[in-house]
Write a structure and sequence with these properties.
The complex is a heterodimer of chains A (about 200) and B (about 350). Chain A is mostly helical and about 200 residues long. Helices cover about 70% and strands about 0% of the residues of chain A. In chain A, helix 1 runs antiparallel to helix 2 and helix 2 runs antiparallel to helix 3. In chain B, helix 2 runs parallel beside helix 12, helix 3 packs across helix 11 and helix 7 crosses helix 8. The longest helix of chain B is centred in the N-terminal third of the chain and has 34 residues. The mean pLDDT of chain B is about 85.
Protein backbone atom coordinates (compact mmCIF):
# COMPACT_ATOMS: atom_id res chain seq x y z
CA UNK A 1 0.00 0.00 0.00
CA UNK A 2 2.70 2.43 1.06
CA UNK A 3 4.75 1.35 -1.93
CA UNK A 4 1.85 2.17 -4.23
CA UNK A 5 1.34 5.60 -2.70
CA UNK A 6 5.06 6.28 -3.07
CA UNK A 7 5.02 5.03 -6.65
CA UNK A 8 2.22 7.37 -7.66
CA UNK A 9 3.83 10.24 -5.78
CA UNK A 10 7.16 9.74 -7.56
CA UNK A 11 5.35 9.09 -10.83
CA UNK A 12 3.52 12.40 -10.55
CA UNK A 13 6.78 14.16 -9.78
CA UNK A 14 8.46 12.45 -12.70
CA UNK A 15 5.77 13.48 -15.19
CA UNK A 16 5.66 17.02 -13.81
CA UNK A 17 9.42 17.46 -14.04
CA UNK A 18 9.50 15.91 -17.51
CA UNK A 19 6.90 18.47 -18.56
CA UNK A 20 9.04 21.11 -16.92
CA UNK A 21 11.96 20.14 -19.15
CA UNK A 22 10.06 21.03 -22.31
CA UNK A 23 7.90 23.95 -21.16
CA UNK A 24 10.47 25.93 -19.17
CA UNK A 25 11.51 29.10 -20.97
CA UNK A 26 14.94 29.24 -19.45
CA UNK A 27 17.26 26.45 -20.65
CA UNK A 28 18.92 26.31 -17.22
CA UNK A 29 15.53 25.64 -15.65
CA UNK A 30 14.98 22.91 -18.24
CA UNK A 31 18.26 21.27 -17.32
CA UNK A 32 17.39 21.46 -13.62
CA UNK A 33 13.99 19.90 -14.29
CA UNK A 34 15.84 17.09 -16.07
CA UNK A 35 17.94 16.59 -12.95
CA UNK A 36 14.76 16.27 -10.88
CA UNK A 37 13.48 13.85 -13.52
CA UNK A 38 16.53 11.61 -13.11
CA UNK A 39 16.33 11.69 -9.33
CA UNK A 40 12.66 10.69 -9.27
CA UNK A 41 13.22 7.89 -11.76
CA UNK A 42 16.03 6.68 -9.51
CA UNK A 43 13.53 6.66 -6.65
CA UNK A 44 11.10 4.59 -8.75
CA UNK A 45 13.87 2.12 -9.54
CA UNK A 46 14.54 1.84 -5.82
CA UNK A 47 10.90 0.87 -5.36
CA UNK A 48 11.48 -1.86 -7.96
CA UNK A 49 14.39 -3.18 -5.82
CA UNK A 50 16.94 -2.27 -8.49
CA UNK A 51 19.20 -0.30 -6.15
CA UNK A 52 22.31 -0.58 -8.29
CA UNK A 53 20.66 0.99 -11.32
CA UNK A 54 19.06 3.67 -9.17
CA UNK A 55 22.28 4.72 -7.49
CA UNK A 56 24.27 4.59 -10.72
CA UNK A 57 21.66 6.71 -12.47
CA UNK A 58 22.15 9.39 -9.82
CA UNK A 59 25.92 8.94 -9.83
CA UNK A 60 26.44 9.11 -13.59
CA UNK A 61 23.62 11.24 -14.92
CA UNK A 62 22.95 13.60 -12.02
CA UNK A 63 26.49 13.73 -10.69
CA UNK A 64 28.47 13.98 -13.91
CA UNK A 65 26.50 14.31 -17.14
CA UNK A 66 24.06 16.96 -15.98
CA UNK A 67 26.80 18.96 -14.30
CA UNK A 68 28.56 19.22 -17.66
CA UNK A 69 25.23 19.92 -19.34
CA UNK A 70 24.55 22.79 -16.97
CA UNK A 71 28.11 23.93 -17.46
CA UNK A 72 27.49 24.30 -21.20
CA UNK A 73 23.94 25.61 -20.99
CA UNK A 74 24.90 28.35 -18.55
CA UNK A 75 27.62 29.57 -20.90
CA UNK A 76 25.35 29.72 -23.93
CA UNK A 77 23.74 32.97 -24.87
CA UNK A 78 20.39 31.79 -26.15
CA UNK A 79 18.00 34.15 -27.89
CA UNK A 80 14.57 32.74 -27.12
CA UNK A 81 12.70 34.73 -29.79
CA UNK A 82 14.98 33.40 -32.50
CA UNK A 83 14.62 29.87 -31.16
CA UNK A 84 10.86 30.06 -31.28
CA UNK A 85 10.64 31.46 -34.80
CA UNK A 86 11.09 28.06 -36.46
CA UNK A 87 8.95 26.20 -33.95
CA UNK A 88 5.83 25.64 -36.05
CA UNK A 89 7.82 24.53 -39.07
CA UNK A 90 8.94 21.36 -37.28
CA UNK A 91 5.75 20.85 -35.30
CA UNK A 92 4.56 18.01 -37.56
CA UNK A 93 7.70 16.03 -36.76
CA UNK A 94 7.02 16.47 -33.07
CA UNK A 95 3.41 15.35 -33.42
CA UNK A 96 4.45 12.19 -35.31
CA UNK A 97 7.05 11.32 -32.65
CA UNK A 98 4.55 11.91 -29.86
CA UNK A 99 1.97 9.74 -31.65
CA UNK A 100 4.41 6.85 -32.06
CA UNK A 101 5.44 7.05 -28.41
CA UNK A 102 1.80 7.05 -27.26
CA UNK A 103 0.98 4.00 -29.41
CA UNK A 104 4.00 2.17 -27.99
CA UNK A 105 3.12 2.98 -24.38
CA UNK A 106 -0.49 1.89 -24.87
CA UNK A 107 0.83 -1.32 -26.47
CA UNK A 108 3.03 -2.08 -23.47
CA UNK A 109 0.35 -1.24 -20.91
CA UNK A 110 -2.38 -3.32 -22.59
CA UNK A 111 -0.11 -6.24 -23.47
CA UNK A 112 -1.03 -8.01 -20.24
CA UNK A 113 -4.75 -7.85 -21.03
CA UNK A 114 -4.19 -9.48 -24.41
CA UNK A 115 -2.73 -12.57 -22.78
CA UNK A 116 0.94 -12.00 -23.62
CA UNK A 117 2.32 -11.22 -20.18
CA UNK A 118 6.00 -10.58 -20.78
CA UNK A 119 6.88 -9.11 -17.41
CA UNK A 120 5.51 -12.01 -15.37
CA UNK A 121 4.65 -9.57 -12.60
CA UNK A 122 6.98 -8.65 -9.74
CA UNK A 123 7.64 -11.04 -6.92
CA UNK A 124 9.23 -9.56 -3.79
CA UNK A 125 12.83 -10.70 -3.67
CA UNK A 126 14.41 -12.47 -0.67
CA UNK A 127 15.99 -10.30 2.01
CA UNK A 128 19.63 -11.16 1.23
CA UNK A 129 19.30 -10.60 -2.49
CA UNK A 130 21.89 -8.12 -3.72
CA UNK A 131 21.01 -6.54 -7.00
CA UNK A 132 24.57 -5.21 -7.35
CA UNK A 133 26.23 -8.60 -6.96
CA UNK A 134 23.76 -10.26 -9.33
CA UNK A 135 24.33 -7.64 -12.01
CA UNK A 136 28.09 -7.99 -11.60
CA UNK A 137 27.92 -11.76 -11.93
CA UNK A 138 25.87 -11.62 -15.10
CA UNK A 139 27.77 -8.75 -16.64
CA UNK A 140 31.24 -10.22 -16.20
CA UNK A 141 30.45 -13.83 -17.07
CA UNK A 142 27.58 -14.30 -19.45
CA UNK A 143 27.67 -10.89 -21.10
CA UNK A 144 31.40 -10.26 -20.84
CA UNK A 145 31.95 -9.80 -24.58
CA UNK A 146 29.00 -7.45 -25.23
CA UNK A 147 30.12 -5.50 -22.17
CA UNK A 148 33.68 -5.15 -23.48
CA UNK A 149 32.32 -4.24 -26.89
CA UNK A 150 30.20 -1.45 -25.40
CA UNK A 151 33.25 -0.18 -23.53
CA UNK A 152 35.31 -0.13 -26.74
CA UNK A 153 32.50 1.71 -28.51
CA UNK A 154 32.52 4.37 -25.81
CA UNK A 155 36.28 4.65 -26.04
CA UNK A 156 36.06 5.15 -29.80
CA UNK A 157 33.40 7.80 -29.25
CA UNK A 158 35.62 9.65 -26.78
CA UNK A 159 38.59 9.61 -29.13
CA UNK A 160 36.40 10.69 -32.05
CA UNK A 161 34.98 13.59 -30.07
CA UNK A 162 38.46 14.77 -29.14
CA UNK A 163 39.74 14.31 -32.70
CA UNK A 164 36.83 16.28 -34.12
CA UNK A 165 37.39 19.28 -31.88
CA UNK A 166 41.20 19.29 -31.95
CA UNK A 167 42.56 21.82 -34.34
CA UNK A 168 46.18 22.62 -34.79
CA UNK A 169 46.31 26.35 -34.99
CA UNK A 170 49.52 27.93 -36.20
CA UNK A 171 51.32 30.04 -33.65
CA UNK A 172 49.59 28.42 -30.70
CA UNK A 173 51.47 28.94 -27.46
CA UNK A 174 51.54 26.00 -25.09
CA UNK A 175 53.43 25.34 -21.90
CA UNK A 176 55.95 22.56 -21.72
CA UNK A 177 55.55 21.39 -18.16
CA UNK A 178 58.65 19.25 -18.12
CA UNK A 179 60.64 22.26 -19.17
CA UNK A 180 58.99 24.44 -16.52
CA UNK A 181 59.78 21.94 -13.81
CA UNK A 182 63.37 21.45 -14.97
CA UNK A 183 64.20 25.14 -14.71
CA UNK A 184 67.14 25.91 -12.46
CA UNK A 185 67.78 28.99 -10.51
CA UNK A 186 70.90 29.90 -12.49
CA UNK A 187 68.91 30.17 -15.74
CA UNK A 188 66.52 32.76 -14.36
CA UNK A 189 68.30 34.76 -11.72
CA UNK A 190 71.39 36.82 -12.32
CA UNK A 191 73.07 38.19 -9.26
CA UNK A 192 74.75 41.48 -9.89
CA UNK A 193 77.43 42.56 -7.51
CA UNK A 194 77.63 46.29 -7.17
CA UNK A 195 78.78 48.83 -4.70
CA UNK A 196 76.29 50.24 -2.19
CA UNK A 197 76.68 53.73 -3.65
CA UNK A 198 78.03 55.29 -6.77
CA UNK A 199 81.52 56.59 -6.64
CA UNK A 200 81.67 60.27 -7.32
CA UNK B 1 17.47 4.33 36.25
CA UNK B 2 19.82 3.19 33.49
CA UNK B 3 17.78 0.02 33.01
CA UNK B 4 14.56 1.94 32.59
CA UNK B 5 16.17 4.23 30.02
CA UNK B 6 17.53 1.32 28.00
CA UNK B 7 14.21 -0.55 28.16
CA UNK B 8 12.46 2.62 27.01
CA UNK B 9 15.01 2.95 24.18
CA UNK B 10 14.66 -0.63 22.94
CA UNK B 11 10.89 -0.43 23.36
CA UNK B 12 10.74 2.30 20.73
CA UNK B 13 9.80 1.35 17.17
CA UNK B 14 12.61 1.18 14.61
CA UNK B 15 11.77 4.39 12.80
CA UNK B 16 11.71 6.36 16.07
CA UNK B 17 15.14 5.03 17.01
CA UNK B 18 16.67 5.83 13.64
CA UNK B 19 15.09 9.30 13.75
CA UNK B 20 16.68 9.85 17.14
CA UNK B 21 20.06 8.76 15.77
CA UNK B 22 19.66 11.02 12.73
CA UNK B 23 18.90 14.00 14.97
CA UNK B 24 21.79 13.19 17.28
CA UNK B 25 24.28 12.81 14.41
CA UNK B 26 23.12 15.98 12.67
CA UNK B 27 23.33 18.09 15.81
CA UNK B 28 26.73 16.70 16.72
CA UNK B 29 28.07 17.43 13.23
CA UNK B 30 26.86 21.02 13.49
CA UNK B 31 28.57 21.40 16.86
CA UNK B 32 31.71 19.75 15.47
CA UNK B 33 31.70 22.24 12.61
CA UNK B 34 31.49 25.12 15.07
CA UNK B 35 34.43 23.79 17.07
CA UNK B 36 36.34 22.96 13.88
CA UNK B 37 36.19 26.58 12.70
CA UNK B 38 37.65 27.65 16.02
CA UNK B 39 40.29 24.89 15.91
CA UNK B 40 41.21 25.93 12.37
CA UNK B 41 41.75 29.54 13.35
CA UNK B 42 43.71 28.52 16.43
CA UNK B 43 45.92 26.03 14.56
CA UNK B 44 46.64 28.38 11.69
CA UNK B 45 47.28 31.09 14.24
CA UNK B 46 49.87 28.97 16.04
CA UNK B 47 51.49 28.01 12.75
CA UNK B 48 51.85 31.68 11.91
CA UNK B 49 53.02 32.57 15.43
CA UNK B 50 49.78 34.32 16.36
CA UNK B 51 47.33 33.51 19.10
CA UNK B 52 44.16 33.13 17.07
CA UNK B 53 40.77 34.12 18.52
CA UNK B 54 41.17 34.59 22.28
CA UNK B 55 38.53 37.09 23.38
CA UNK B 56 35.09 35.46 23.60
CA UNK B 57 34.84 33.10 26.54
CA UNK B 58 32.05 30.82 27.63
CA UNK B 59 31.51 30.93 31.43
CA UNK B 60 34.94 32.47 31.75
CA UNK B 61 36.59 29.30 30.45
CA UNK B 62 39.12 28.79 27.67
CA UNK B 63 39.68 32.06 25.82
CA UNK B 64 38.18 31.85 22.33
CA UNK B 65 35.76 29.01 22.93
CA UNK B 66 32.78 31.30 22.45
CA UNK B 67 34.05 32.67 19.14
CA UNK B 68 32.19 30.34 16.72
CA UNK B 69 28.93 30.86 18.57
CA UNK B 70 29.39 34.61 18.57
CA UNK B 71 30.05 34.41 14.82
CA UNK B 72 26.89 32.43 14.21
CA UNK B 73 24.80 34.88 16.21
CA UNK B 74 26.31 37.76 14.27
CA UNK B 75 25.52 36.10 10.94
CA UNK B 76 21.97 35.29 12.06
CA UNK B 77 21.37 38.96 12.85
CA UNK B 78 22.53 40.16 9.45
CA UNK B 79 20.26 40.74 6.50
CA UNK B 80 20.28 38.21 3.65
CA UNK B 81 20.62 40.44 0.61
CA UNK B 82 19.21 39.04 -2.63
CA UNK B 83 20.79 40.78 -5.65
CA UNK B 84 18.42 42.72 -7.88
CA UNK B 85 18.54 40.53 -10.99
CA UNK B 86 19.14 37.26 -9.21
CA UNK B 87 17.04 34.20 -9.80
CA UNK B 88 15.40 34.39 -6.38
CA UNK B 89 14.19 30.82 -6.02
CA UNK B 90 17.50 29.20 -7.02
CA UNK B 91 19.46 31.79 -5.04
CA UNK B 92 17.64 30.83 -1.86
CA UNK B 93 17.64 27.08 -2.44
CA UNK B 94 21.32 26.74 -3.49
CA UNK B 95 22.82 26.78 0.05
CA UNK B 96 20.39 24.07 1.11
CA UNK B 97 21.31 21.90 -1.89
CA UNK B 98 24.97 22.30 -0.92
CA UNK B 99 24.27 21.32 2.68
CA UNK B 100 21.96 18.29 2.32
CA UNK B 101 24.38 15.77 0.76
CA UNK B 102 27.02 16.59 3.38
CA UNK B 103 24.62 15.40 6.08
CA UNK B 104 22.76 12.67 4.20
CA UNK B 105 25.94 10.71 3.50
CA UNK B 106 26.42 10.06 7.23
CA UNK B 107 23.50 7.61 7.07
CA UNK B 108 25.71 4.79 5.77
CA UNK B 109 28.95 5.52 7.65
CA UNK B 110 29.65 2.91 10.33
CA UNK B 111 30.38 4.96 13.46
CA UNK B 112 31.10 2.03 15.77
CA UNK B 113 30.80 -1.76 15.53
CA UNK B 114 27.12 -1.56 16.43
CA UNK B 115 26.06 1.83 15.17
CA UNK B 116 25.22 2.65 11.59
CA UNK B 117 21.95 4.39 10.76
CA UNK B 118 21.28 2.57 7.49
CA UNK B 119 23.24 -0.63 6.91
CA UNK B 120 22.71 -0.89 3.16
CA UNK B 121 24.55 -3.13 0.73
CA UNK B 122 25.30 -0.49 -1.90
CA UNK B 123 26.71 1.88 0.73
CA UNK B 124 29.80 2.84 -1.24
CA UNK B 125 27.74 3.69 -4.32
CA UNK B 126 25.38 5.73 -2.17
CA UNK B 127 28.33 7.70 -0.83
CA UNK B 128 29.64 8.37 -4.35
CA UNK B 129 26.21 9.37 -5.64
CA UNK B 130 25.54 11.80 -2.80
CA UNK B 131 28.96 13.43 -2.74
CA UNK B 132 28.63 14.04 -6.47
CA UNK B 133 25.41 15.98 -5.87
CA UNK B 134 26.99 18.59 -3.62
CA UNK B 135 28.36 20.44 -6.65
CA UNK B 136 24.86 21.56 -7.62
CA UNK B 137 24.69 23.90 -4.67
CA UNK B 138 27.86 25.62 -5.82
CA UNK B 139 26.92 25.81 -9.50
CA UNK B 140 23.43 27.10 -8.80
CA UNK B 141 24.71 29.65 -6.28
CA UNK B 142 27.18 30.95 -8.84
CA UNK B 143 24.69 31.11 -11.67
CA UNK B 144 21.63 32.42 -9.84
CA UNK B 145 23.45 35.35 -8.23
CA UNK B 146 23.81 37.00 -11.65
CA UNK B 147 27.33 38.11 -10.89
CA UNK B 148 30.40 37.57 -13.04
CA UNK B 149 32.69 36.64 -10.18
CA UNK B 150 30.22 34.18 -8.73
CA UNK B 151 29.69 32.65 -12.14
CA UNK B 152 33.42 32.24 -12.74
CA UNK B 153 33.74 30.56 -9.37
CA UNK B 154 30.90 28.18 -10.20
CA UNK B 155 32.43 27.24 -13.56
CA UNK B 156 35.82 26.57 -12.00
CA UNK B 157 34.28 24.49 -9.29
CA UNK B 158 32.20 22.43 -11.72
CA UNK B 159 35.20 21.55 -13.90
CA UNK B 160 37.34 20.79 -10.87
CA UNK B 161 34.81 18.56 -9.15
CA UNK B 162 34.04 16.56 -12.29
CA UNK B 163 37.78 15.98 -12.82
CA UNK B 164 38.54 14.89 -9.26
CA UNK B 165 35.45 12.78 -8.86
CA UNK B 166 36.81 10.35 -11.43
CA UNK B 167 40.05 9.91 -9.52
CA UNK B 168 38.05 9.53 -6.32
CA UNK B 169 35.79 6.91 -7.88
CA UNK B 170 38.74 4.92 -9.20
CA UNK B 171 40.44 5.02 -5.79
CA UNK B 172 37.27 3.59 -4.28
CA UNK B 173 37.20 0.89 -6.97
CA UNK B 174 40.52 -0.25 -5.48
CA UNK B 175 38.98 -0.37 -1.99
CA UNK B 176 36.04 -2.28 -3.39
CA UNK B 177 38.38 -4.84 -4.96
CA UNK B 178 40.16 -5.36 -1.65
CA UNK B 179 36.98 -5.67 0.39
CA UNK B 180 34.83 -7.54 -2.10
CA UNK B 181 31.80 -5.65 -0.83
CA UNK B 182 30.08 -2.30 -1.23
CA UNK B 183 28.89 -2.33 2.36
CA UNK B 184 30.98 0.10 4.42
CA UNK B 185 30.69 -2.06 7.54
CA UNK B 186 32.12 -5.02 5.66
CA UNK B 187 34.88 -2.83 4.23
CA UNK B 188 35.92 -2.01 7.80
CA UNK B 189 35.71 -5.63 8.95
CA UNK B 190 37.87 -6.79 6.05
CA UNK B 191 40.70 -4.57 7.32
CA UNK B 192 40.91 -6.35 10.68
CA UNK B 193 44.35 -7.33 11.99
CA UNK B 194 46.40 -4.31 13.03
CA UNK B 195 47.56 -1.17 11.24
CA UNK B 196 49.44 -3.03 8.50
CA UNK B 197 46.31 -4.89 7.47
CA UNK B 198 44.44 -1.65 6.93
CA UNK B 199 43.93 -0.67 3.33
CA UNK B 200 46.38 2.23 3.38
CA UNK B 201 49.34 -0.16 3.33
CA UNK B 202 48.50 -2.21 0.24
CA UNK B 203 46.61 0.58 -1.49
CA UNK B 204 48.95 3.40 -0.55
CA UNK B 205 48.80 5.29 -3.91
CA UNK B 206 45.01 5.09 -3.86
CA UNK B 207 44.96 6.34 -0.28
CA UNK B 208 47.01 9.41 -1.25
CA UNK B 209 44.97 10.03 -4.39
CA UNK B 210 41.71 9.67 -2.48
CA UNK B 211 42.66 12.18 0.18
CA UNK B 212 44.02 14.69 -2.36
CA UNK B 213 40.83 14.38 -4.41
CA UNK B 214 38.86 14.78 -1.21
CA UNK B 215 40.63 18.05 -0.46
CA UNK B 216 39.96 19.18 -4.04
CA UNK B 217 36.33 18.09 -3.86
CA UNK B 218 35.69 20.17 -0.75
CA UNK B 219 37.23 23.24 -2.43
CA UNK B 220 39.77 23.60 0.33
CA UNK B 221 43.22 25.14 -0.01
CA UNK B 222 45.36 24.53 -2.04
CA UNK B 223 42.52 23.70 -4.46
CA UNK B 224 40.26 26.60 -3.52
CA UNK B 225 40.16 28.34 -6.91
CA UNK B 226 36.36 28.29 -6.72
CA UNK B 227 36.68 30.89 -3.96
CA UNK B 228 40.03 32.32 -4.97
CA UNK B 229 39.71 35.53 -2.98
CA UNK B 230 42.71 37.14 -4.62
CA UNK B 231 41.30 36.57 -8.14
CA UNK B 232 37.52 36.46 -8.06
CA UNK B 233 36.66 38.07 -4.69
CA UNK B 234 34.99 35.09 -2.99
CA UNK B 235 33.92 33.00 -5.94
CA UNK B 236 30.53 31.36 -5.94
CA UNK B 237 29.32 32.91 -2.70
CA UNK B 238 30.27 36.55 -3.35
CA UNK B 239 26.65 37.67 -3.25
CA UNK B 240 25.64 35.70 -0.18
CA UNK B 241 25.39 37.39 3.17
CA UNK B 242 24.18 36.61 6.65
CA UNK B 243 22.93 33.14 7.41
CA UNK B 244 22.84 32.07 3.73
CA UNK B 245 26.61 32.48 3.68
CA UNK B 246 26.85 30.66 7.00
CA UNK B 247 25.08 27.67 5.46
CA UNK B 248 27.69 27.46 2.68
CA UNK B 249 30.34 27.65 5.37
CA UNK B 250 28.62 24.88 7.31
CA UNK B 251 28.42 22.74 4.18
CA UNK B 252 32.12 23.15 3.45
CA UNK B 253 33.18 22.18 6.95
CA UNK B 254 30.65 19.34 7.17
CA UNK B 255 32.12 18.03 3.91
CA UNK B 256 35.62 18.22 5.40
CA UNK B 257 34.51 16.09 8.33
CA UNK B 258 32.78 13.73 5.92
CA UNK B 259 35.82 13.28 3.69
CA UNK B 260 37.98 12.67 6.78
CA UNK B 261 35.50 10.07 8.02
CA UNK B 262 35.35 8.37 4.63
CA UNK B 263 39.13 8.24 4.31
CA UNK B 264 39.35 6.73 7.79
CA UNK B 265 36.70 4.13 6.98
CA UNK B 266 38.08 3.16 3.58
CA UNK B 267 41.81 3.23 4.27
CA UNK B 268 42.50 3.40 8.00
CA UNK B 269 40.19 0.73 9.30
CA UNK B 270 37.35 2.97 10.56
CA UNK B 271 36.52 2.06 14.13
CA UNK B 272 39.20 -0.66 14.36
CA UNK B 273 41.82 -0.22 17.05
CA UNK B 274 45.48 0.14 15.99
CA UNK B 275 46.55 -1.94 19.03
CA UNK B 276 44.48 -4.94 18.10
CA UNK B 277 46.12 -8.22 19.05
CA UNK B 278 49.06 -6.78 21.03
CA UNK B 279 49.55 -9.08 24.02
CA UNK B 280 50.86 -6.28 26.30
CA UNK B 281 47.64 -4.32 26.08
CA UNK B 282 45.49 -7.41 26.37
CA UNK B 283 41.77 -6.96 26.46
CA UNK B 284 41.60 -3.36 27.68
CA UNK B 285 39.82 -0.39 26.16
CA UNK B 286 42.77 0.31 23.86
CA UNK B 287 42.49 -3.03 22.11
CA UNK B 288 38.75 -2.85 21.52
CA UNK B 289 37.22 -1.36 18.38
CA UNK B 290 35.09 1.66 19.25
CA UNK B 291 33.94 5.07 18.06
CA UNK B 292 36.92 6.56 19.89
CA UNK B 293 39.33 5.28 17.22
CA UNK B 294 37.21 6.53 14.34
CA UNK B 295 36.98 9.93 16.03
CA UNK B 296 40.74 10.03 16.50
CA UNK B 297 41.38 9.18 12.84
CA UNK B 298 38.87 11.80 11.69
CA UNK B 299 40.63 14.34 13.90
CA UNK B 300 44.02 13.55 12.35
CA UNK B 301 42.69 14.05 8.82
CA UNK B 302 40.96 17.27 9.79
CA UNK B 303 44.27 18.50 11.15
CA UNK B 304 45.85 17.65 7.77
CA UNK B 305 43.20 19.80 6.07
CA UNK B 306 44.16 22.76 8.27
CA UNK B 307 47.87 22.08 7.89
CA UNK B 308 47.52 22.11 4.07
CA UNK B 309 45.74 25.41 4.24
CA UNK B 310 48.43 26.99 6.36
CA UNK B 311 51.28 25.58 4.26
CA UNK B 312 50.54 25.34 0.54
CA UNK B 313 50.07 28.19 -1.91
CA UNK B 314 47.02 27.99 -4.15
CA UNK B 315 47.27 25.97 -7.36
CA UNK B 316 46.76 27.71 -10.65
CA UNK B 317 43.64 26.58 -12.47
CA UNK B 318 45.43 24.76 -15.31
CA UNK B 319 47.74 23.09 -12.79
CA UNK B 320 44.71 21.73 -10.96
CA UNK B 321 43.35 20.29 -14.18
CA UNK B 322 46.71 18.77 -15.08
CA UNK B 323 47.14 17.21 -11.65
CA UNK B 324 43.66 15.72 -11.75
CA UNK B 325 43.62 14.33 -15.28
CA UNK B 326 47.28 13.60 -15.96
CA UNK B 327 48.62 12.58 -12.57
CA UNK B 328 45.94 11.28 -10.23
CA UNK B 329 43.78 9.34 -12.70
CA UNK B 330 46.71 7.45 -14.33
CA UNK B 331 48.06 6.58 -10.86
CA UNK B 332 44.73 5.04 -9.88
CA UNK B 333 44.45 3.15 -13.16
CA UNK B 334 47.94 1.67 -12.77
CA UNK B 335 47.31 0.69 -9.18
CA UNK B 336 44.04 -1.03 -10.03
CA UNK B 337 45.99 -3.14 -12.52
CA UNK B 338 48.61 -3.86 -9.83
CA UNK B 339 45.78 -4.88 -7.51
CA UNK B 340 44.59 -7.31 -10.15
CA UNK B 341 48.04 -8.92 -10.05
CA UNK B 342 48.02 -8.94 -6.24
CA UNK B 343 44.64 -10.65 -6.26
CA UNK B 344 45.91 -13.21 -8.75
CA UNK B 345 49.00 -14.06 -6.72
CA UNK B 346 47.10 -13.82 -3.41
CA UNK B 347 49.16 -11.07 -1.79
CA UNK B 348 48.05 -8.71 0.97
CA UNK B 349 44.29 -8.38 1.48
CA UNK B 350 43.71 -11.37 -0.81
CA UNK B 351 46.08 -13.74 1.04
CA UNK B 352 43.40 -15.41 3.14
Amino acid sequence: MLVQILFYLFGAFLVASALGVIVARNPVHSALALVLCFVTSAAIWLLLEAEFLAVVLVLVYVGAVMVLFLFVVMMLDIDLAELRSGFTRYAWLGWITAGVVIVEIVGVVTARNLGVDVTRGTVPLPEDYSNTAELGNVLYTRFAYPFELAAMLLLVAIIAAIALTMRRRPGLKVQDVAKQVAVRREERVRIVKMDPEKRP
Amino acid sequence: MLDSISSLWFGLPDYARSTAWILLITVSIIICVALLTLWERKVIGWMQLRRGPNRVRIFGLLPGLGQPFADVIKLLMKEVVVPANANKFLFRIAPIIALVPAFATWAVIPLSPELVVADIDAGLLYVLALTSMGVYGIILAGWSANSKYAFLGAMRSAAQIVAYEIAMGFALVGVLMAAGSLNLGKIVLQQQGGPLAWNWFWLFPLFVVYFISGVAETNRAPFDVAEGESEIVAGFHVEYSGIAFAIFFLAEYANMILISALTSVMFLGGWLSPFEGYPIIGDTFLAKPSFFWLGLKIFVFLFLFLWFRATFPRYRYDQIMRLGWKALIPVTLVWIAVEGLMAHFRIGPWSS
